[in-house]
Amino acid sequence: MTDPFSLQQWHDLRDTEWDTLVLGNGSSVAISPHFLYRSLASKAGLDPSTARLLSSQDSLFNFESALYALHTTSQVLSILGEDASPSIQSAHEALKSGLSRAIHRMHPLYDAVDQIEILKRNRELKRYRQVFTTNYGLLVYWALADGKFTGFDDGFRSGLFSGAANASPHVTAVWFLHGAFHLRRAADGSDRKCAGGLLNGSLLEQVARDLHWRQEIQVVTEGKAQTKRAY
What we know:
With 231 residues, this protein is α/β, with parallel strands linked by helices. It has two domains: 10-32 and 111-229, no CATH class; 38-106. The chain has nine helices and nine strands. A hairpin with a 2-residue loop joins strand 4 (156-157) and strand 5. The longest helix is centred in the middle third of the chain and has 21 residues, at 86-106. It starts with 19 loop residues before the first strand and ends with a helix.
Protein backbone atom coordinates (compact mmCIF):
# COMPACT_ATOMS: atom_id res chain seq x y z
CA MET A 1 0.00 0.00 0.00
CA THR A 2 1.34 3.43 -0.97
CA ASP A 3 2.09 5.75 1.93
CA PRO A 4 -0.23 8.79 1.34
CA PHE A 5 2.32 11.04 3.05
CA SER A 6 5.33 9.98 0.98
CA LEU A 7 6.68 12.24 -1.76
CA GLN A 8 6.55 10.48 -5.09
CA GLN A 9 9.27 10.87 -7.68
CA TRP A 10 8.54 12.66 -10.94
CA HIS A 11 9.70 9.72 -13.08
CA ASP A 12 6.88 7.71 -11.47
CA LEU A 13 4.30 10.35 -12.34
CA ARG A 14 5.37 11.76 -15.70
CA ASP A 15 2.97 9.54 -17.67
CA THR A 16 -0.02 10.46 -15.49
CA GLU A 17 -2.80 12.32 -17.28
CA TRP A 18 -3.30 15.78 -15.76
CA ASP A 19 -6.01 18.23 -16.81
CA THR A 20 -4.68 21.19 -14.81
CA LEU A 21 -1.30 22.93 -14.83
CA VAL A 22 0.05 25.53 -12.41
CA LEU A 23 2.93 27.70 -13.63
CA GLY A 24 5.13 29.49 -11.10
CA ASN A 25 8.19 31.70 -11.44
CA GLY A 26 10.32 28.66 -12.23
CA SER A 27 8.76 28.50 -15.69
CA SER A 28 10.08 32.02 -16.36
CA VAL A 29 13.48 31.24 -14.85
CA ALA A 30 13.73 28.32 -17.28
CA ILE A 31 13.70 30.90 -20.09
CA SER A 32 15.88 33.48 -18.36
CA PRO A 33 17.77 33.28 -15.04
CA HIS A 34 17.25 37.04 -14.73
CA PHE A 35 13.80 36.24 -13.31
CA LEU A 36 15.38 34.82 -10.15
CA TYR A 37 14.35 36.86 -7.10
CA ARG A 38 17.96 37.81 -6.31
CA SER A 39 18.44 39.18 -9.82
CA LEU A 40 15.15 41.10 -9.66
CA ALA A 41 16.07 42.56 -6.27
CA SER A 42 19.29 43.98 -7.73
CA LYS A 43 17.31 45.89 -10.38
CA ALA A 44 14.38 47.11 -8.27
CA GLY A 45 15.95 50.49 -7.48
CA LEU A 46 15.16 50.25 -3.76
CA ASP A 47 16.66 52.45 -1.07
CA PRO A 48 18.91 50.57 1.42
CA SER A 49 16.33 50.29 4.20
CA THR A 50 13.63 48.89 1.89
CA ALA A 51 16.14 46.55 0.25
CA ARG A 52 16.96 45.12 3.68
CA LEU A 53 13.33 43.99 3.99
CA LEU A 54 13.96 41.56 1.15
CA SER A 55 17.14 40.05 2.54
CA SER A 56 15.73 39.86 6.09
CA GLN A 57 12.76 37.70 5.02
CA ASP A 58 14.72 34.80 3.56
CA SER A 59 17.68 34.08 1.38
CA LEU A 60 15.47 34.02 -1.73
CA PHE A 61 14.80 37.79 -1.74
CA ASN A 62 11.09 37.02 -2.04
CA PHE A 63 9.14 40.21 -2.78
CA GLU A 64 5.78 38.63 -1.92
CA SER A 65 7.02 37.52 1.53
CA ALA A 66 8.28 41.00 2.34
CA LEU A 67 5.07 42.63 1.09
CA TYR A 68 2.96 40.22 3.11
CA ALA A 69 5.03 40.97 6.23
CA LEU A 70 4.35 44.69 5.79
CA HIS A 71 0.64 44.03 5.22
CA THR A 72 0.48 41.88 8.38
CA THR A 73 2.28 44.57 10.38
CA SER A 74 -0.31 47.16 9.32
CA GLN A 75 -3.15 44.80 10.30
CA VAL A 76 -1.65 44.10 13.74
CA LEU A 77 -1.19 47.80 14.43
CA SER A 78 -4.79 48.43 13.40
CA ILE A 79 -6.05 45.70 15.77
CA LEU A 80 -4.03 47.26 18.59
CA GLY A 81 -5.54 50.66 17.82
CA GLU A 82 -2.26 52.07 16.59
CA ASP A 83 -1.77 54.07 13.41
CA ALA A 84 0.47 52.39 10.88
CA SER A 85 3.63 54.33 10.27
CA PRO A 86 3.73 56.14 6.90
CA SER A 87 7.04 54.38 6.35
CA ILE A 88 5.22 51.02 6.24
CA GLN A 89 2.93 52.14 3.43
CA SER A 90 5.84 53.82 1.69
CA ALA A 91 7.93 50.64 1.86
CA HIS A 92 4.97 48.58 0.57
CA GLU A 93 4.51 50.87 -2.43
CA ALA A 94 8.26 50.96 -3.09
CA LEU A 95 8.53 47.16 -3.09
CA LYS A 96 5.51 46.66 -5.32
CA SER A 97 6.54 49.27 -7.90
CA GLY A 98 10.16 48.13 -7.61
CA LEU A 99 9.15 44.58 -8.51
CA SER A 100 7.37 45.80 -11.65
CA ARG A 101 10.37 47.94 -12.66
CA ALA A 102 12.78 45.07 -12.06
CA ILE A 103 10.75 42.59 -14.12
CA HIS A 104 10.59 45.10 -16.96
CA ARG A 105 14.33 45.82 -16.82
CA MET A 106 15.23 42.11 -16.82
CA HIS A 107 12.53 40.94 -19.24
CA PRO A 108 13.89 39.57 -22.52
CA LEU A 109 12.62 41.05 -25.76
CA TYR A 110 10.30 38.86 -27.81
CA ASP A 111 12.88 38.42 -30.58
CA ALA A 112 15.48 37.35 -28.01
CA VAL A 113 13.41 34.36 -26.88
CA ASP A 114 13.89 31.07 -28.72
CA GLN A 115 10.83 30.89 -30.99
CA ILE A 116 10.96 27.09 -30.91
CA GLU A 117 10.62 27.30 -27.13
CA ILE A 118 7.54 29.51 -27.47
CA LEU A 119 5.99 27.04 -29.93
CA LYS A 120 6.77 24.10 -27.62
CA ARG A 121 5.09 25.91 -24.71
CA ASN A 122 2.07 26.71 -26.85
CA ARG A 123 1.64 23.03 -27.69
CA GLU A 124 2.27 21.89 -24.12
CA LEU A 125 -0.28 24.28 -22.60
CA LYS A 126 -2.95 23.03 -25.01
CA ARG A 127 -2.72 19.60 -23.40
CA TYR A 128 -4.50 20.90 -20.29
CA ARG A 129 -8.09 21.83 -19.54
CA GLN A 130 -7.00 24.68 -17.26
CA VAL A 131 -3.76 26.59 -16.78
CA PHE A 132 -3.14 28.77 -13.73
CA THR A 133 -0.14 31.08 -13.83
CA THR A 134 1.37 33.35 -11.19
CA ASN A 135 3.95 34.84 -13.58
CA TYR A 136 3.92 38.63 -13.97
CA GLY A 137 5.88 38.79 -17.21
CA LEU A 138 4.85 38.19 -20.82
CA LEU A 139 6.27 34.72 -21.46
CA VAL A 140 2.97 32.88 -20.90
CA TYR A 141 1.10 35.50 -22.95
CA TRP A 142 3.57 35.07 -25.81
CA ALA A 143 3.08 31.29 -25.71
CA LEU A 144 -0.71 31.76 -25.96
CA ALA A 145 -0.35 34.33 -28.75
CA ASP A 146 1.69 31.94 -30.89
CA GLY A 147 -1.06 30.95 -33.30
CA LYS A 148 -3.26 33.94 -32.41
CA PHE A 149 -4.61 32.40 -29.19
CA THR A 150 -6.22 29.50 -31.05
CA GLY A 151 -7.17 26.82 -28.53
CA PHE A 152 -7.05 29.15 -25.51
CA ASP A 153 -9.54 31.27 -23.59
CA ASP A 154 -8.22 33.86 -21.10
CA GLY A 155 -11.68 35.26 -20.40
CA PHE A 156 -11.22 38.52 -22.28
CA ARG A 157 -13.73 39.63 -24.91
CA SER A 158 -12.80 42.67 -27.02
CA GLY A 159 -10.15 43.49 -24.43
CA LEU A 160 -12.49 43.34 -21.40
CA PHE A 161 -12.51 40.54 -18.82
CA SER A 162 -15.70 38.47 -18.80
CA GLY A 163 -14.50 35.37 -16.95
CA ALA A 164 -12.45 32.39 -18.17
CA ALA A 165 -15.08 30.12 -16.58
CA ASN A 166 -17.07 30.70 -19.77
CA ALA A 167 -14.42 28.90 -21.79
CA SER A 168 -15.53 26.16 -24.18
CA PRO A 169 -14.71 22.63 -22.98
CA HIS A 170 -12.73 22.24 -26.19
CA VAL A 171 -10.17 24.95 -25.36
CA THR A 172 -7.74 25.59 -22.52
CA ALA A 173 -8.91 28.12 -19.94
CA VAL A 174 -6.04 30.32 -18.71
CA TRP A 175 -6.08 32.20 -15.42
CA PHE A 176 -3.54 34.94 -14.63
CA LEU A 177 -3.85 34.65 -10.86
CA HIS A 178 -1.46 37.49 -10.03
CA GLY A 179 -2.19 39.69 -13.01
CA ALA A 180 0.48 40.19 -15.66
CA PHE A 181 2.24 42.90 -17.67
CA HIS A 182 -0.37 42.82 -20.45
CA LEU A 183 -3.27 43.50 -18.04
CA ARG A 184 -4.52 46.84 -16.71
CA ARG A 185 -7.02 47.93 -14.08
CA ALA A 186 -9.20 50.76 -15.43
CA ALA A 187 -10.55 53.64 -13.36
CA ASP A 188 -14.00 51.99 -13.31
CA GLY A 189 -12.52 48.84 -11.77
CA SER A 190 -12.72 46.74 -14.93
CA ASP A 191 -9.80 44.61 -16.09
CA ARG A 192 -8.48 45.16 -19.59
CA LYS A 193 -6.02 43.40 -21.85
CA CYS A 194 -3.43 45.31 -23.87
CA ALA A 195 -2.09 44.23 -27.23
CA GLY A 196 1.01 45.21 -29.11
CA GLY A 197 0.77 46.84 -32.51
CA LEU A 198 2.02 49.53 -34.84
CA LEU A 199 0.15 52.31 -33.00
CA ASN A 200 0.83 51.22 -29.42
CA GLY A 201 4.28 49.69 -29.85
CA SER A 202 5.32 46.42 -28.25
CA LEU A 203 3.84 45.35 -24.92
CA LEU A 204 7.18 45.94 -23.21
CA GLU A 205 7.22 49.49 -24.61
CA GLN A 206 3.71 50.01 -23.25
CA VAL A 207 4.83 48.75 -19.83
CA ALA A 208 7.73 51.21 -19.86
CA ARG A 209 5.35 54.10 -20.58
CA ASP A 210 2.86 53.00 -17.96
CA LEU A 211 5.55 52.60 -15.31
CA HIS A 212 6.82 56.09 -16.12
CA TRP A 213 3.33 57.61 -15.84
CA ARG A 214 2.41 55.39 -12.85
CA GLN A 215 -0.48 53.73 -14.63
CA GLU A 216 -2.15 50.73 -12.96
CA ILE A 217 -0.39 47.61 -14.24
CA GLN A 218 -2.07 44.46 -12.92
CA VAL A 219 0.64 43.03 -10.69
CA VAL A 220 -1.08 41.46 -7.67
CA THR A 221 1.50 40.71 -5.00
CA GLU A 222 -0.76 40.62 -1.94
CA GLY A 223 -0.48 37.59 0.33
CA LYS A 224 -3.71 35.72 0.99
CA ALA A 225 -6.41 34.84 -1.54
CA GLN A 226 -9.01 37.20 -0.09
CA THR A 227 -6.49 40.06 -0.15
CA LYS A 228 -5.57 39.34 -3.76
CA ARG A 229 -9.22 39.40 -4.77
CA ALA A 230 -9.51 42.91 -3.31
CA TYR A 231 -7.01 44.19 -5.90
